Amino acid sequence: MSYKNALSISHEIVTKYLAEGDFAIDATAGNGNDTLLLAKLVGDKGKVYAFDIQEIAIHNTCKRLKENKLEHRVQLINNGHQFMDKYISDKVKVVMFNLGYLPGGNHLIATKPQNTITAIDTSLKLLKEGGIIMMVIYYGGDSGFAEKNAIMNHIKKLDYKKYSVLVMDYINWINCPPIAVCIEKLK
Length: 187
Prior knowledge:
With 187 residues, this protein is α/β, with parallel strands linked by helices. Helix content is 32%, strand content 24%. α3 links the parallel β2 and β3 (74-77). α4 packs parallel to α5 (145-155). The chain is globular and about 40 Å long.
């Protein structure tokens, strides 16, 4: 597989971790692309929880799932990812984040640093040992620099005996290419 961008890297990694019967979280449902991938991977015995603060994102994700006849595998939650522990008590294998704003949506409505850091910390508690958080951080243009910096500062302080943090960045690309980050909860 060609690692042409951070999103393709995130999908490749998640595909290697997630299996039939696993539970997963899409912390930023957006237009449903990651939710659909997760729903395919967990199978009928697994479950996906998908969060988004925007009703249009929940609608778009629901539509995509119905088109693929996979809506029964997903619980859609119209709330911020920082509240995921209010809805989930199951241990999960994968948590995905695509940070920034809804593609094609209002750039003023975007993920926020403190909410995302709270969601990352909550995700770490919900993760099974050997599970991962997979993030794609979009930060160029008109948003995301503060969030990117806050996240990077936060995750580099994670205890290396408990978590392995891998950051994949296209350092020779122009215009702030998205960054892929994988955090594995060690056994």
